[in-house]
Specification:
This protein has 564 residues and is of the alpha/beta class. Among the domains are: 107 residues, no CATH class; 79 residues, Copper Amine Oxidase, Chain A, domain 1. Helix content is 34%, strand content 17%. Strands 5-6-4-3-7-1-8-13-2-14 form a ten-stranded mixed β-sheet, with helices on both faces. A five-stranded antiparallel β-sheet has the order 16-17-18-19-20, with no helix packed on it. A three-stranded antiparallel β-sheet has the order 15-22-21. A hairpin with a 4-residue loop joins strand 21 and strand 22. 49% of the residues are buried. The protein binds zinc ion. The site of zinc ion (ZN) has 6 residues, from loops.
Length: 564
């Protein structure tokens, strides 16, 4: 018996590699397109596909369907259920990190860390595949998304911060990281200095200017829509904001002009936002908009023959299910029973909120009849009128309460009320308003067929992305230590002084002196000045990061050369 067990064990070790495709050779490509539907669980994909097929009987499949090839186990460094910032950071850097961390090494959490952690590396910025492609091969970089540009996922590809909400640290890094094309939300979030830097360095910058973007002929362009995030696809005014598919097409057109190749990340950002609100309309229709953008990328890759496409969510969200307790007889529910009502919803909950708060209460039934295909009954009307955030309610705010209101519909938030109301007309279920820990789907296209098959860990997916550009995760890590070294190590032989800013929200300056030579180093930029007057500029091709918690500047080792 013991002999048989040993034999079987040995057999298993040779036949089933311990980690996914670790051993499989991946032929490098010229271009990589990473497509991320944020917070998309597999059931969201199923519901979106059914909705599209219900509305278009001639379209039973999604653009991604022929390329589905595996799953990814995604999580944070010390928690199985991931946050957007650390999960995409891991795809981009090879290291899972803590919630809120943007492409930054996690502080250790000895009792909970899922993988071994080196406490000495806490808060170190980590080079991303996009940055490495630029530094090692001169690849162009592009970002397309529907959230505001400094938000978690686009930031994960091009900036570094242990706190994802520190837009004042993240936004300037993205501008100074010499990305070639940036299209998405956040027109009000571009700092003046960053806009000046972009324009001074040959970029065209558009804000809420669809025509301008469409007529743009440059290869270095920022086009931003909406003060912060963009509208959901189904709510979008096509005369004001482009679709994700159009943004993807324009980005590829510009990036593919770079002879060294490019890295492009496209995010369906707000699928996640709708999932947090348990809004099935936003989830399904923004996923279909994302799938159309995938169609654009996949068609380009097939024609171009030098491009790989990877499609993978960063984590699950909401626990959505097709089938729910209050819909009995689950195995006899027809396509019409499951999708007819749903197919008539023409706005997301956010879209309904805009409408309801901009038209008189007398229009409520017209609005729901026109955009949802039903009128509210008395119970639903009362629940609406008692929403605290319903501006046009006929019930004075001080009289609004949950008393006597149908509990399954009551909410202070109009957005949540509408999500509950629309969901009550379907057989979809939700288990949470937060992220979920199940693995996510993986789809891939490779011109020579080297696609990632099977279940991958998030770290292995990074290894695959690195291999597509002809380097390894270890080489990426080596680049991090070269590009993001501690100033205390780089300038250990020189006098260093960190001068706090006089401005309240200003950043400190690191002044390093050696005899007559002096460097003046500010964070979140790629520009360093030389000399007492700081009148000579050194332009780097990576950004400098300051971590206030440890008062440490992370910068390229090579900067020491300027003081020799
Ligand atoms: Zn996310």
């Amino acid at each position: 018996m013991k002999k048989t067990m040993t034999f079987l064990l040995l057999l298993a070790m040779f036949i089933v590699p311990v980690h996914g495709t670790e051993t499989k050779e991946v032929k490098p490509v010229k271009n990589v397109i990473l497509m991320i539907p944020d917070g998309t669980s597999l059931a969201t994909v199923s519901i979106a596909r059914w909705l599209q097929w219900y509305n278009q009987p001639e379209v039973p499949k999604l653009n991604i369907d022929p390329y589905l090839c595996g799953t990814v186990r995604t999580h944070s460094s010390n928690a199985p259920i991931g946050d957007s910032a650390p999960t995409t950071s891991c795809y981009m850097t090879g290291y899972p990190s803590r919630t809120g961390y943007v492409s930054t090494y996690p502080e250790s959490d000895p009792d909970n860390d899922i993988y071994p952690n080196d406490p000495a590396r806490a808060f170190q910025p980590l080079i991303t595949v996009l940055e490495a492609g630029k530094l090692l091969h001169g690849k162009a970089g592009g970002l397309v998304f529907t959230c505001e540009f400094p938000h978690a996922t686009p930031a994960d590809c091009s900036a570094h911060s242990y706190n994802r909400s520190k837009y004042e640290w993240i936004a300037p890094q993205m501008a100074h990281n010499d990305l070639n094309v940036v299209i998405g939300g956040g027109a009000s979030l571009l700092p003046e200095e960053s806009e000046y830097y972009l324009k001074a360095n040959g970029y065209t910058v558009y804000k809420d200017d669809l025509k301008g973007m469409r007529n743009d002929t440059s290869n270095k362009m920022w086009a931003l829509y909406g003060d912060r995030e963009m509208a959901y696809d189904i709510d979008r005014d096509p005369n004001e904001q482009p679709s994700l598919a159009e943004m993807t097409r324009i980005a590829i057109e510009k990036l593919s002009k770079d002879e060294d190749g490019f890295f492009l990340m496209v995010e369906g950002s707000k699928i996640d936002w709708a999932a947090h609100g348990n809004d099935p309309v936003g989830m399904a229709t923004d996923f279909l908009a994302f799938d159309r953008a995938c169609g654009v990328a996949l068609r380009f890759a097939q024609e171009n023959k030098e491009t790989a496409v990877i499609i993978v969510p960063d984590h699950g969200n909401s626990g959505i299910s097709l089938g729910v307790r209050h819909c009995g007889g689950y195995d006899k529910l027809t396509k019409d029973q499951l999708f007819n009502a749903f197919s008539q919803f023409k706005l997301t909950a956010e879209g309904f909120v805009h409408k309801l708060n901009s038209e008189p209460a007398s229009e409520v039934q017209n609005i729901f009849r026109e955009y949802a295909g039903f009128e509210l009954n008395e119970v639903e009307l009362q629940a609406l009128y008692h929403c605290k955030s319903y501006k046009n309610s006929p019930v004075p705010e001080e009289e609004r309460s949950s008393e006597g209101i149908e509990p399954s519909l009551y909410s202070g938030s109009l957005n949540t009320f509408v999500s509950k109301l629309l969901t009550s007309k379907t057989c979809f279920g939700f288990t949470t308003g937060g992220h979920t820990g199940e693995e996510v789907f993986l789809a891939g296209y490779h011109p020579q067929g080297d696609i990632p098959l099977g279940m991958h860990t998030n770290i292995e997916l990074n290894e695959y992305l690195c291999n597509l550009f002809g380097f390894t995760r270890d080489e990426l890590d080596e680049l991090s230590s070269q590009r993001f070294a501690k100033h205390t190590d780089v300038f250990k032989d020189y006098s260093c002084e960190i001068i706090p800013s006089k401005e309240e929200k200003g950043f400190p300056t690191l002044v390093v002196k050696n005899k007559k030579k002096q460097l003046n180093i500010k964070p979140f930029t790629n520009i360093v000045t030389e000399g007492k007057k700081g009148d000579k500029e050194i332009r780097l091709n990576s950004v400098i990061v300051h971590v206030d918690k440890t008062n440490t500047f992370y910068l390229p080792e090579s900067l020491a050369e300027y003081l020799k």
